[in-house]
Amino acid sequence: MKNLGVEQKQKMKQNQWIERKQQTEQQIKHGHQAEQKQQRKAPFVEYWDPEKHSFARAESLLEALGFADWHSLPRVVSLVGAGGKTSTMYDLAGELADRGARVLVTTSTHIFKPDQYETVVLPRLSGLFGQDKPDRQKYRLEEGRILAAGKRTEKEGGEGKLCMPEDLGEETVMEMLLSRFDVILIEADGSKCLPVKVPSSAEPVLIPQTGLVVACAGLTALGETFESSCFRFSTHGPWLKRNASDRIEPEDLALILMDERGSRKGAGGRYYRIILNQADTERERRLSEMVVHALPEKLQQACVRTTREACSAGEDKAAVK
User: What mean pLDDT is predicted for residues 63-91?
Assistant: First the structure.
């Protein structure tokens, strides 16, 4: 009986340990989700209202892009262009995770390794579910989680950056990824941190499964010279018929965003949206409306505007009224 009592006590301790472990795992899970939300400052988002011929407040980036929820969003989204592309991708990833989606963030070019999300560095995405590595099962994410993945770049000066995994876009790999993630967000273009760009012959890098192309541009480029603010202008911008010393006008930015030699390159029949970032002053908000008016009507309805200065944006709007 004495031995039985000892065994019962050991069993009770074991059960208590298992229970505490499970509670700790749940706390960690919810802690990660809370941490992701705290580290992300949501932008002030607006969409173009064709009836009012002006921008109107949207509750979320997802809504502004014209999708009711992540279930109606194309499952593979590629972001192209310049001016806030990476921030936009992480904003969208955060919104999707908040709504319960399992999100994979990766690149078909290069991105800085994100500190705010769990990140896996590996040469091939198939390594996320290698049959010989049972521990990879942990990448079956719970609802509302974000995972970033990419290959370590070998380029000089590429410390802290991830580049395109070797098998991104392969049909069988994408099928496996889409069985584990609800949405895959891909940074598919590079701009050397400049607000506007024209693509080279090899850009953007859109994989076949891309269903939505989101073109980003920074409004701070307006009024600056092409030479200083438009990436690849000297080598791939002759079709714009502008000089390097010319100032970028709203009509110029609209042309880059609407033309198939510009941000729409390779988009084809996919969903296409435009995000005008950096609308942080009244000047930039006024110029953003000029950009939209220079676009065809169909593309006007695809325009979104964001600012990181939500309070000042609201105050300026009130003052104008």
Answer: 96
